[in-house]
Amino acid sequence: MKAAYFEEQNMTRQNTKETTSTRLDLAIATADSIDGQLKAFTCRPASYPSGNDIGSDGALRGVPVAVKDLIDTADMPTAYGSKIFQGHQPRKDAWIVNKLREAGAVIFGKTVTTEFAWRDPGATVNPWNPAHSPGGSSSGSAAAVGAGIVDIALGTQTVGSVIRPASYCGAVGYKPTYGRIPTEGVHPLAPTLDHLGFITSSFHWAAVCHAIVVQDRPFDVSADAFARGEKPRRIGIYRSSQWAHVDSEVQQNFDATVRRLEFCGVECVDVDLGMDIRDINALTNGILAYEARQSLYGDIKDAGELAGPYTRELVKRGETVSDDDYANLIGQIKQARATRDAPLRNLDAIMTITSPTTALKGLEKTGDASFCAPATLLGLPAVTVPSGISTAFLPFGVQLIGRANEDLALLNIGQWFSNVLPSIRAPSLTFTAS
Description:
By secondary structure, this protein is α/β, with parallel strands linked by helices. It contains 13 helices and eleven strands. Strand 7, helix 8 (248-263) and strand 8 form a beta-alpha-beta unit.
């Protein structure tokens, strides 16, 4: 396998200048053509490198990567989605941005985030239909990938902000195991829950990012070998006590996915997570409110009405969580994480939905993240697999959850899923709203 990989790499290097320039030029042309309507980016460089100036010979040489505006960049402003920080210029790159640059990536631009990665939305629209939300908080990153501008974009997730927008925009989402990526240089929302992650055009790119950023080594599997994926033997099916509140079309797509797996010889068994999903979300919301107050109060206390209403409400709600209440919540989450792999015993992964609906109509709300909360609270790796298109021509996605620190195994399963589920791509962007 490795011999094939290195032979492939030697062939690739012969055309490195051509392929990297072509990839970057295509991203520039696509963004120039559609981003005035898509509004995925808050900032792009005045010029991009070319030829020998593109950068190192790392695995991402010349690959354009979009960076969520919650993440510091030394060469572009970072406003954290807030009017309070408009024009703010960080002194250095976030750890993850530096890591990507070392691998040869071209930082293509900063993407729209909801304010401080909470709920006050930006201007980004869904690439499948501009009358619909792209999700949040990684709105611009999901839209930029879903629209075909870039293959890789950085996101963050405190509840569902990678998995859900990836699903809404028809992309792959990958949230690593909690703590596997340093968050230095990323504005905190709730550090006990905050994850860095990736929204990508394929599982191949997600696996490349995993190798470089999470494992700190080259991606040493041949493209052909990874493309086959890893067929799971047994998948846990998680519908939860809230299944009756899930949109009927989302239910139908999920059930059709289960039938497809069974047709392919995968055993599917119903599972629970040891806690009711309502209790998981209550625990998540309590920790989030307390820690968000600590993270955001200093930013907004003298800012008048510059902070959005959802941000102000969250900080105010944090006042109602006492120190004793918070200590109790932290005790609960530590206990839950200590036994977090138990529901996956004798399973290759757990499958659930990404959201109770497809992308919401209107831009005022970013969607329901309740089904993303379990993997986030437990710190387990999770991925979004596109799984079809609704009657309104909006993407469906299913969510896979794996064992802690077995992210690559989950990505291989996700790749297999992508081979047996419908391949979808956003239509040409004419932006005729309906």
